[in-house]
Amino acid sequence: MIKVLFFASLREQLGCDAIEVPADELGSVADLRSTLAGKGEAWQTALSNEQLQVAVNQELSNMQAAISDGDEIAFFPPVTGG
After folding, report:
1. How far apart are CA 18 and CA 21, in angstroms?
2. Which residues of 11-40 are buried (b: 16+ CB within 10 A; e: fewer)?
3. Contact at 8 Å (CB) between 6 and 16?
4. Longest Cα pair distance anywhere in the chain, in angstroms?
5. Residue-level pLDDT at 81
6. Between β-strands 18-21 and 2-6, what pairing exists: parallel, antiparallel or unpaired?
7. Which residue among 16, 33, 71, 75 has its CA within the 20 to 30 Å range from the CA of 61?
8. What pLDDT sits at residue 42?
């Protein structure tokens, strides 16, 4: 299983802060993102932002990063200053 965390506005949009997803056939963060977007319109909208940030096992990464069973993936919106 892969643990997926959602932070800030993503957590609010999706109505949850974490889910677990079977690792089967997920080779990259992009695969995971695509699978999650298939869960419905809210998921597709929340995960469609091209500026979306991701961390794999608490290290900033990118959508092409490899993932495997037991990993923790965190999605969060881009940081804005102010």
Report:
1. 10
2. beebeeeeeebeeeebebbeebbebbbeee
3. yes
4. 41
5. 58
6. antiparallel
7. 16
8. 94
Closest CA to 36 of 58, 13, 8: 13
DSSP-derived secondary structure letter, 5: E
CA atoms in the 13 A half-sphere facing the CB of 63: 14
Q: What tokens appear for 13 in the block?
A: 């949009």
Between CA 16 and CA 40 the distance in angstroms is 14
Terminal CA-CA length for the chain: 37
Q: Which of 54, 8, 59 is nearest to 28 (CA)?
A: 54
Q: Give the separation between CA 80 and CA 8, rounded to whole angstroms.
A: 12
Low pLDDT (below 70) residues in the chain: 80-82
